[in-house]
Prior knowledge:
CATH topology: Type 1 dockerin domain
Protein name: Dockerin domain-containing protein
Largest sheet: none
Organism: marine sediment metagenome
GO biological process, one term: polysaccharide catabolic process
CATH superfamily: Dockerin domain
Shape: flat
Amino acid sequence: xxxxxxxxxxxxxxxxxxxxxxxxxxxxxxxxxxxxxxxxxxxxxxxxxxxxxxxxxxxxxxxxxxxxxxxxxxxxxxxxxxxxxxxxxx
Length: 90
């Protein structure tokens, strides 16, 4: 953790700003994230992107965490999508 902004504390994102299982970092957990997850399923290494529980492997416990986030969207993704819809309909 860094000292962002000249403070000794690490910063935390606002509520609904990030999703644990959003492997593509596009603001929503969907099939593309699952495809990335499936590619590394059963791998055992430190710091794997699909190792959501940080126990050193990608297993069914991590799949459970992915399903809990399934089709959820971050607040910023919802705002972007709404703006896009407004532009199309205008």
